[in-house]
């Protein structure tokens, strides 16, 4: 008996196409199932991440607090300009020089054991212009108002930064009110004594600085 069966070319082609389609469909179904399985894991992963900005912000804040706590008690140096006439090893020699040179409004400023004779002091170079005064010259000095026990370092800084005499007068008034009328205020007394013979702001600054430079407790001077 002959069991062979003859197939046409069309039948064979249709069978091949059908097989390919079934294979593609099977792959697609498997891929779809895999995607469904992995999606929950990827969706959950963002919740387990720690924001990178969190710790950095905290560290920065702590660093800022640390810097504030470590701030020095002394104030920042202020650049001033003095009109200088001479420097001496003793206060007596400086006073004698002032008398001989007829410098009644000059002041003796003590710095590192030396005594300087100045006749003006200001924050600008023009404030210590030596023009027309033979032998005088401009000298730069850095003044650091210190946090002294009397608290007058801050008062000194205010005076050195003042641009009007009225600012100093207002400062004296507030000091008197704070101390009370029955108590003598050394700061107010010093200002009153200086302003009694001059209304020149550069001379007032100079004499106030001379007073505080004597002890060095409320002011530090450096060249």
TrEMBL record:
Keywords: Membrane, Transmembrane, Transmembrane helix
Ranges of biased composition (kind: Basic and acidic residues): 59-71
UniProt keyword Transmembrane helix, yes or no: yes
Statement: the UniProt record of this protein carries the keyword Transmembrane helix: yes
Region feature Disordered, mapped onto this chain: 43-76
Annotated transmembrane regions: 12-35
Protein's name according to its UniProt entry: Uncharacterized protein
Organism: Sporosarcina aquimarina
């Amino acid at each position: 008996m002959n069991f062979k069966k003859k197939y046409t070319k069309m039948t064979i082609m249709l069978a091949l196409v059908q097989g390919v389609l079934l294979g593609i469909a099977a792959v697609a179904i498997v891929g779809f199932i895999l995607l469904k399985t992995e999606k929950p894991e990827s969706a959950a992963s963002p919740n387990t991440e720690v924001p990178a900005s969190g710790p950095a912000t905290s560290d920065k804040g702590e660093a800022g607090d640390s810097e504030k706590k470590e701030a020095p008690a002394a104030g920042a140096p202020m650049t001033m300009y003095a009109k200088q006439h001479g420097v001496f090893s003793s206060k007596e020699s400086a006073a004698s020089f002032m008398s001989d040179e007829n410098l009644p409004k000059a002041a003796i400023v003590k710095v590192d054991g030396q005594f300087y004779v100045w006749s003006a002091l200001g924050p600008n170079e023009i404030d210590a212009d030596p023009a027309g005064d033979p032998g005088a010259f401009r000298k730069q000095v850095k003044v650091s108002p210190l946090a002294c026990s009397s608290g007058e370092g801050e008062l000194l800084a205010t005076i050195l930064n003042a641009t009007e005499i009225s600012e100093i007068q207002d400062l004296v008034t507030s000091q008197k009110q704070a101390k009370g009328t029955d108590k003598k205020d050394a700061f107010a007394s010093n200002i009153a004594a200086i302003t009694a013979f001059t209304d020149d702001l550069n001379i007032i600054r100079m004499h106030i600085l001379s007073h505080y430079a004597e002890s060095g407790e409320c002011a530090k001077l450096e060249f």
